[in-house]
Amino acid sequence: MELYNTCERMISRGKITGMQKKLDIFYAADRLTEDEYTKLTAQLEAKQQELTEKEAQINAQNHS
Fold first, then answer.
1. Which of 19, 48, 50, 54 has the largest count of CB atoms under 10 Å?
2. What's the average model confidence in pLDDT over 28-52?
3. Pairwise CA distance, residues 40 & 19, whole Å
């Protein structure tokens, strides 16, 4: 559970570089349950989308 909480915190803070690979490794090594892996993967995808949208807004503002 501690690993899950750490990964969740990193994702929420935007520290996502290489995170999908880490989640895959933790899951393969039985350090995360299937439920934890599924939740973290969904959170990661949502954070990636959020950051992509923010970047697009910043780029649009800079080109205006």
1. 19
2. 97
3. 10
- Whose structure tokens read 């929420």? 12
Closest CA relative to residue 47, chosen from 5, 17, 6, 22: 17
How confident is residue 26, by pLDDT bands cut at 50, 70 and 90? very high
Instruction: Give me 29's structure tokens.
Output: 């090594």
Read off the DSSP letter of residue 18: T
> ∠ at Cα 11 (8, 15), nearest 5°?
135
Three-class secondary structure assignment of 31-58: CCCHHHHHHHHHHHHHHHHHHHHHHHHH
pTM over 0.85: yes
Residue length of the chain: 64
